[in-house]
Structure formats: C-alpha cells, structure tokens
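Request:
Um, any thoughts?
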Amino acid sequence: MKHFKNIFTLLSLFLLLNTAHGQDEGPISEMYLKGKWVATCAMEVIDKASMANCDICPFVINPNDKSQAETKDIEMDFQSDSLTINQNGKHSTVAYVRNTNTHAISFALNDRHYNFRVFFYNKQRILEDGDGLLLVLSKIK
C-alpha cells in the first residue's frame, strides 16, 4: 500500500505536468503564426478551360517547354510583426497586422494588399484571401 501511494503520487504529478504543458501549446497559442512555413497554393477550377490561384503564388513557366507552367510553393517566415516571403528565390520582408478578434492577417506586397483569414487543419494552417483562394501552410522543422 505504501508503494501504491508513491506510484499514484508520481502518476498524478506526471499527468498534471502534461496537462499544464499541453495548455501552453494548445490551439489558442497556435492561432498566431510564428516561424517558418511552406505555403502550397491550392488551385480553384473556374471552368473547363481555366483555373485560379492566389496572386501571391509565383507562376513559373518551364524553361524546357514553354507550354507548361506551374505554381511554386513559397516560404513564409512569420516574426512578431513582420513576414519574410520567399517567392521562387525572391525574398521580400513586409510588416503585417493581425486582427486580434478574428486572427486574420493583412499586409501589402508588390503594390497589392492581402487580407487572409486563418483556418486550422491538423498541424497545417490554411489562409483564405478575399477572393476565397487558399494557401495551405505546413510548418518547416
């Protein structure tokens, strides 16, 4: 019985520490994007002949076959008040503003204003622009 109390105390302490630690890294703290992410540009089918993607995604033509092109993933590095974007080797750092009520982010890049709503999907984040086009963000480790 004496060992049972010690084991129960250790187990309780372990569970308590895990619960407290889990709260620090729960969804509320993850609502703020921080660190480096790879953004994959989702394509929307408009009709039989056309598709659209967010303007922030670079559209690159295959140098070996000019009839082929694709959108390239971009890297986004979120700091507390700035964002560095790597678009196919072109690095830009811009200030961004976070709406503290909705957690949306907005910034200006290349004379265009972007406003993104933030969604959660497992460990990924999804950014939706004003036109409903999506970026799927995966954390870089």
Observations:
- Residues 1-30 form one domain.
- The longest strand covers residues 112-121.
